[in-house]
Amino acid sequence: MEKTAIKEGYFGSVNGRRARLFTLSNGVISASFTDFGASLVSLLAPEKDGSRTETVLGYDRAEGYENGSCYIGATVGRFAGRIGGAAFTLDGTEYRLPKNDGENHLHGGFSKRFFDAEITGEELVFSLESPDGDEGFPGNLTLRVAVSLDGASLVIRYEAETDKRTAVNFTNHAYFDLDPEKKGIGKHTLKVYSDAFAETDPALIPTGRILPVSGSPADLSDGRLLSEIVSDGRLFATRGLDHSFILKGEGMKIAAELVFPATGLAVACFTTLPAIHVYTGGFLDGDAGPVLRGGIKQKRHLGVALETERLPDSPNKPDFPETALAPGEKYSETTVYTLYYL
């Protein structure tokens, strides 16, 4: 197997700062990231004729990531997902966060920041220092995001430490579209390895109840055509899926499989995290920002995000698994996206 080569290039500028593009390639697949938002820009799968198929949505330059509002490809934090009321209480102290999703807090601001980047052998490591009080969160936090290739797999490792107890939840917000012509996800099938999902209220904040997927519009346990999902009247308010699924098993496990039957191209998602949030891009058409790579205009259901994470609003839900990180502890989770053909 060929070693991974990593090349660095110019990717535009944000607020006068030069943005860089790093491309990892190993003769099987290639992945490109920018240091602005530690964002996944491109993930190319090999075709049988030797060409490459783009599998994720992205922008041509860093300015697109600066002006876009849908977290395309970004590393998000400090807390991926929604926090109800933009506030939570930890150890008896209430922490108030920016309201950036109605009355709630969504994802945080890491997607709009430059990360430090270092090439260490065959691995690209992004790092970010988030000070105590950053967007209201307690503790000085250090986040490292290490990306590498393993055959046909993109491996993303997250590590974080803090000097004060705080709530953490990180993910990558790539939108997948395996159609070479980028016509959207309707003709894709998606299988999620889950028997249960988190019920939400109209503002998409978890109610605290965990419901079985069986009999619900969120049942993807046997795989479903996404055109059926996004047109399901029971999902009218969310224009498709915007739901968190509890995964089966412990440790590294399969979370989801997305397939484009017309070509047989597929991506399997594996993770050590306990949940995956599936967002079928129902509001991508609301972004007035720049067009995507190739001059593609954002539209509803153009891509699907497979966000491995802990459950949203966990700091306000005592029955949900813990998301607090304490001094002396290390947050360490891994997600893998593997490209293959049926």
How does this model look, in words?
With 342 residues, the chain is mainly β. The protein has one domain (5-341): Distorted Sandwich (Beta-galactosidase, Chain A, domain 5), CATH 2.70.98.10. The chain has helices at residues 62-67, 226-230, and strands spanning 5-14, 17-25, 30-34, 39-46, 52-54, 75-76, 82-83, 87-90, 93-96, 105-106, 116-120, 123-130, 141-150, 153-162, 166-167, 171-172, 175-176, 189-192, 194-200, 206-212, 224-225, 242-247, 253-260, 265-271, 275-279, 304-309, 324-325, 331-341. Strand 1 and strand 2 form a beta hairpin. The mean pLDDT is 96.
Brief sketch in words of this structure:
It is built from 2 helices and 28 strands.
**Broad shape:** globular
Assembly state (oligomeric): single chain
Residue runs with pLDDT of under 50 for 5 or more positions: none
Strands, count: 28
Cα distance spanning the termini: 22 Å
Q: What is the C-level CATH assignment?
A: Mainly Beta
The CATH topology corresponds to Beta-galactosidase, Chain A, domain 5
**Main sheet strand line-up:** 11-12-13-14-28-24-23-18-21
Q: Would you identify the CATH architecture?
A: Distorted Sandwich
Strand content: 35-45%
Instruction: Quote the average pLDDT.
Output: 96
**What is the count of distinct domains?**
1
Structural class: mainly beta
SSE pattern: EEEEEHEEEEEEEEEEEEEEEEHEEEEEEE
Q: What gyration radius follows from the Cα positions, in whole Å?
A: 19 Å
Characterize the biggest β-sheet: 9 strands, antiparallel
Secondary structure: helix percent:
under 10%
Number of helices: 2
